Amino acid sequence: MAKKNETETKALTEKLLVNRKNGYFSVNDAKVKKADTFCEGYKEFLQNSKTEREAAASACKIAQEAGFVPYDADKTYAPGDRVYVDNRGKSLLLATIGTEGCKNGVRIEAAHIDCPRLDLKPHPLFEDNDLVQLKTHYYGGLKKYQWTTIPLAMHGRICRKDGTMVDVCVGEKPGDPLFTISDLLPHLARAQQAKTLGKAIEGEKLNVLIGSRPVRDEEGKDVFKLNTMRLLNEQFGITEEDFVSADIVFVPAYRPCDIGFDRALVGAYGQDDRSCAYAELMAAVKVKKPVKTNITVFADREEIGSMGNTGMQSHFLRDFIEDLADSEGVKVRHVLAKSHCLSADVTAAFDPNYADVYDTNNSTYLNNGVGVCKYTGAAGKYDTSDAGAEFVSDIRRLFDKNEVLWQIGEMGKVDAGGGGTVAMYIANMNVDVIDVGVPVLSMHSPFEVVSKLDEYMTYQAMKVFFDAE
């Protein structure tokens, strides 16, 4: 009798209660191997995509190799045709035309490809006590103290006074020089260490060290700065004034790598949100002839509010969908009302070292699959979209049917903080949206960590969503 009751209780538990076991107990070795293989390409993508320009270019190159061609609004496209729209080299749209076109809505996956970093100020170059440095303006929500005393690389584009352009990448190839930001030695840091973390390093002190030798046989003002500028002129053909028309950033020089003896994790800069960008890119490449037209978005400016003509608050996505609608003789508002979107953005992975800011029952965990987030925002759900129960149910069934390992959670405890994604801007177009992405440890740091299994399951989630009817 006791054994029968135990069996019945077990059956009832499996039927009625949530089973939150680690993902490795839910997948076989073959899927683990596929995840490991998938992440080799992912690490290469990260290394080649340390700025939004580079990420857009990398994604465009992979798309072109898969048959995507520039979109022409004057052409008529057939099911299975693949097109792309390059928006100023900083954001990108891919689309595969569905067998039923867009009359019954489109399926959208939207990730962002910008990341926290250090931008140069318009007049960045200065000399101080024989050290040559560049002044920066930090971009996005970062912890300033994490960016001192680490190796940095210089990336970006400089547009010269005559209109010609030069792309810059120094610090990524073997033998390249690296750069850094100095910090105060602990022996003299008594006052600094008494400050809060947010104030210990001031933004105006995030100056990048780039030189310390003068022009030979010269003494006087700015001879150290002049020597560094001479080297920049020889290598890139620029003058100091050309920094005014430049998009130059400094990013961590770390290469993506495996973390742990079991190599289950990936450590790298920029995984928020290029982990989701790569997953949706591979899904877009894989799906050949969907029922509904698929649109893949790689957006800029998310880390600073999605403003600007390359961010999700601009009209570039809606305008593209309107072009598709016009070509089929339907109204764009009717297309949008029937459309669905996965806002492909990362979520916070539970960190046992800082457990006090997480709700353990409502967190996402490394190695437990793709993270679903019904809403983001802060405090009382400000700055979020909050997916409806019906759409959440649709996503549950879709993932379960296709054996996609998934979990659902929030960013952290209600009053601990919060954050947003592009979901609310797409929802504002009258589209059903939910956040789906990779759980991340040390988010927004120079060296973030994700699970290979979670990255692969995010790709699987994106693929089945695009394939769904």
TrEMBL record:
Domain of life: Bacteria
Entry EC number(s): 3.4.11.-
Cofactors: Zn(2+)
GO biological process, one term: proteolysis
InterPro entries xrefs: Peptidase_M18, Peptidase_M18_dom2
Alphabetical UniProt keywords: Aminopeptidase, Hydrolase, Metal-binding, Metalloprotease, Protease, Zinc
Keyword Protease listed: yes
Gene Ontology CC: one annotated term: cytoplasm
GO terms, molecular function: aminopeptidase activity; metallopeptidase activity; zinc ion binding
PANTHER family reported for this sequence: ASPARTYL AMINOPEPTIDASE, M18 FAMILY AMINOPEPTIDASE 1-RELATED
Membership in a protein family: Belongs to the peptidase M18 family.
UniProt xrefs under NCBIfam families: PRK02256.1
Protein's UniProt name: M18 family aminopeptidase
